[in-house]
Design goal:
Blueprint (H helix, E strand, L loop, with lengths): L1 E6 L5 H12 L2 E4 H9 L5 H7 L1 H7 L4 H16 L3 E4 L3 H4 L4 E7 L2 H11 L7 H23 L12 E4 L9 H23 L4 H10 L4 E4 L17
Parallel strand pairs: 1-3, 1-4, 2-3, 4-5
Antiparallel strand pairs: 5-6
Length: 234
């Protein structure tokens, strides 16, 4: 079975998708890397949105590149197993079976993570928050127009909604690493439970152990296409 991570800009989906893939021995697919390949841009995915944001957005003008991205990701999801996908839309587009994870992170925490993750650029904290907001608004508008769901509010498709807003209170590398180290075992345990298709009691137990990090448990995951029954925990 595959796993699809989603979240807004700098929520931590790339970090935790990579960590989980390594821990599980799964392959890893980055939607950003696929998009850069489609656009023909030779730049590292981690630096792309900082260094060449305007160029990328200009190259994405219209829907052709984004439609091609969706097509390629769906094709990969259909042809591969034991793969972790780092993407915005695949959790909504892909059919079952797939584990769908959303990482919730408020604007202030995402700005701090954005600031810490810079390598060559030197955006200020307000600059990071503005970049995240602009990028997310563009992605939201595209997905709402093309796919009919709202990236900012729609969570009913996800099997699990995790939160790390409280885990990185200051914009420094030590704090960021502590936040990652705190959330990573939660991600691992919860996703492993979902991959093993447990009784809901196991997910309830994890939610009781990690009440600040597990904020919603959604649909059951099965080896067959599921119905739309869901259970929310908040």
């Amino acid at each position: 079975m595959n796993v699809a991570f989603a979240g807004l800009t700098a929520a931590g989906k790339t970090t935790h998708a990579r960590l989980l893939a390594r821990e599980l021995g799964y392959d890893y697919v980055s939607a950003t890397e696929v998009m850069l390949e489609i656009l023909g841009l030779d730049v590292a995915a981690g630096d792309a949105w900082f260094q060449r944001y305007d160029e990328i957005q200009a190259a994405r003008e219209g829907d052709a590149a984004d439609d091609e991205l969706d097509r390629r990701l769906l094709e990969l999801a259909a042809s591969r197993r034991r793969t972790v996908f780092d993407t915005w839309a695949l959790a909504w587009l892909a059919p079952d079976p797939i584990v769908r994870i959303w990482i919730e992170s408020d604007p202030a925490s995402r700005a701090r993570k954005c600031l810490v993750s810079q390598t060559r650029t030197r955006l200020s904290l307000p600059g990071c928050e503005a970049l995240c907001q602009e990028k997310d608004e563009h992605t939201r508008d595209s997905l709402r127009r093309r796919r009919g769901f709202d990236l900012f509010t729609d969570r009913d498709r996800y099997d699990l909604v995790l939160c790390n807003s409280h885990l990185i209170p200051t914009a420094d590398h030590a704090c960021a690493q502590r936040g990652i180290a705190t959330l990573a075992p939660v991600v691992h345990q919860a996703v492993t439970a979902l991959l093993e298709r447990p009784h809901l009691g196991e997910l309830d137990r994890l939610a009781d152990v990690y009440p600040a990090e597990i904020i919603r448990i959604g649909r059951r995951v099965s080896s067959e296409p599921s119905d739309d029954a869901s259970r929310a925990r908040s």
